[in-house]
């Protein structure tokens, strides 16, 4: 499918989604969000995409936020719909039974930070700056940042980032657990290295483990633990479980389909 603002392609088992509005630092207009949503549907179904990497075009930004010019004259009702479009789109990343990696090279602000937060793993280049500066615009994060950021870094840091609007530099982002890795340059190469490692393992087991973590995080601890047992049992209905354990006992590498 041809998109105006998104590029979707696959190579070597990886699905690449590139936000492609470099002149606006990849700000997410309604069109870009809609196309991102469609690209995520494609990636979820695509057997050639075992792992998905999301990145931004142009070398200056991952995504500099929701499109401020699109929001300027929105009514409250339109703003609600826009927030729901962003939120339901990002929820597709959370719900996708595949690992999604954000490769951040530059600004990841507002809706861009929230996009990265929805991903499973974040890799950033040293020049990257991550933040939620919406309060400088008289609004606050509306693409689930108020929910995902405190869950990732804790409420103390999240509230400070919200209220000060400051951009956190890559090294600090690593320190506070906001990103997994910082590389000098080329975060895409690091994301591809992680994707290659992931591709060697059981996709069905990764999907079940991701589901157990996501759903468990929304439950009381002992319920989450019980839920884990149910999903652990599901793993024993898969071909991958038979292959993985047989391969170990036969002292050979597993050959997952
Ligand atoms: N929306 C629309 N356009 C944007 C944009 C955004 N979020 N961010 C950058 N742009 C545009 C600029 O308007 C500019 O366009 P023109 O060339 O046509 O003037 C172009 O991208 C380049 O940006 P700058 O000239 O500002 O570049 P800079 O290097 O001086 O600054 C920046 C870079 C610090 C990232 C700055 O662009 C900036 O602060 N951007 C806005 C960041 C922001 O506030 N994001 C939150 C948006 S609100 C949101 O996301 C709500 C939500 O949670 C749902």
TrEMBL record:
EC number: 4.2.1.150
CDD domains: crotonase-like
Keyword Cell wall biogenesis/degradation tagged: no
UniProt keyword list: Lyase
Top-level EC class as recorded in UniProt: lyase
Pfam families: ECH_1
Pathway assignment: Lipid metabolism; butanoate metabolism
Domain of life according to the entry: Bacteria
Catalytic reaction equation(s): a short-chain (3S)-3-hydroxyacyl-CoA = a short-chain (2E)-enoyl-CoA + H2O
Entry annotated with the keyword Lyase: yes
Subunit details: Homotetramer.
Family named by the database record: Belongs to the enoyl-CoA hydratase/isomerase family.
Protein name: short-chain-enoyl-CoA hydratase
Organism (species): Frisingicoccus caecimuris
